[in-house]
Amino acid sequence: MGSVGVLLLNLGGPDKLEDVGPFLYNLFSDPEIIRLPFRWMQKPLAWLIATRRTKTSQANYKYIGGGSPLRRITEEQGEALKAQLGNLGKEANIYVGMRYWHPYTEEAIAQLTQDNIDKLVILPLYPQFSISTSGSSFRLLEQLWQQNPKLQRLEYTVIPSWYKQPGYLQAMAELIREQLNQFPNPDGVHIFFSAHGVPKSYVEEAGDPYQQEIEECTQLIMQTLNRPNPHVLAYQSRVGPVEWLQPYTEDALKELGAQGVKDLVVVPISFVSEHIETLQEIDIEYREIAEEAGIHNFRRAAAPNTHPVFIQALADLVIDSLTKPNLKLSQVTQMKKKVKMYPQERWEWGLTTSAEVWNGRIAMLGFIALIIELITGQGLLHLIGLL
Ligand SMILES: C=CC1=C(C)c2cc3[nH]c(cc4nc(cc5[nH]c(cc1n2)c(C)c5CCC(=O)O)C(CCC(=O)O)=C4C)c(C)c3C=C
Ligand SMILES: [Fe+2]
Ligand SMILES: [Fe+2]
């Protein structure tokens, strides 16, 4: 085989405070993040929500030095992966493609089509699959593929999720062990897995495998760790009015505090780099909640970042994928639909009769409510802090 390319997919984050508004606008413009009945509503609503959220979000980014470290860490992971693949005798070009900020996925694709690589491995830096993360990047790539005949001639394979990869589990176990060993009685410490949340409807109506993959991943990390500690799993970072996966991290912390738990190690599990939700949300907000609840010894496991065991795991993933049959984007963007409610109420991708009925009703009500809210400055979106 000739030259190999590895495309690392990630979410992206604002590099500086001025980037926060446009970054949020890009994020809320994505129908995989906010699903609206009509496409034309997406951009105006994204602009409104982003504009109103910018100040709060900027204040959070200020706490972590005025910008996200995501680009720097992802690029460092790319360099370390390149070096490790080289050590294993596999030369590869690494490309970083972010979904909502620089370097955008489109920029990575433009570069890799110039480099004339022979085979591309598409590796999302999310261990577990969600419609809102890897799924969104895969859909974008599918569109780019449709528009570009050069890409259509390129041999590629996708790694949809990789939370079972033994090296990844080893790296997570090692990072947890490091924190447990700081306590006088390591075996008595509670391990608190905090996963990024998603709206409950993603799982129950759209068939997002995210919750199941998170739960299985938690079990596998505990098995790999092989320690007797009690553990819990909760979901953080809820945004907007709808119900998200439960229990919420803040509630679970309060409950553990009420049970008399004093020693805790929090483990972020949906993401492999430090970012605002580890450095600000866990380290500052959740630490404060835990402290108030009486959990006085609060530590957090570091994200894998460029931990050598983790980088080795990424290299193994790439090498394994080159020996397996190729997986196409069209194979990983098909959702398994689970039907929970009446047929006319179920989540539908695309234009169907039942979707149209609900689209019409919701769009009319939503649009009227939005206009009233914009004129009066009062309403649901203000109430929940989105406007
Ligand atoms: C696996 C990880 C993530 C999932 C799942 C996810 C879903 C999701 N996120 C939002 C809304 C926001 N996310 C924001 C930033 C952000 N989110 C993730 C990861 C996941 N998101 C990352 C890595 C980042 C970037 C962090 C950085 O360091 O810059 C933000 C902006 C920050 C803020 O204002 O809080 C929002 C908003 C939704 C709605 C969602 C699922 C539908
Ligand atoms: Fe958040
Ligand atoms: Fe997010």
UniProtKB/TrEMBL annotation:
InterPro entries: Ferrochelatase, Ferrochelatase_AS, Ferrochelatase_C, Ferrochelatase_N. Fe(2+) binds at residues 196, 277. Catalyzes the ferrous insertion into protoporphyrin IX. Belongs to the ferrochelatase family. One of its GO terms (biological process) is heme biosynthetic process. It comes from Trichormus variabilis SAG 1403-4b. This is Ferrochelatase. Pfam families: Ferrochelatase. One of its GO terms (cellular component) is cytoplasm. GO terms for molecular function: ferrochelatase activity; metal ion binding. It catalyses: heme b + 2 H(+) = protoporphyrin IX + Fe(2+); Fe-coproporphyrin III + 2 H(+) = coproporphyrin III + Fe(2+). Its EC number is 4.98.1.1. The keyword Glycosyltransferase does not apply.
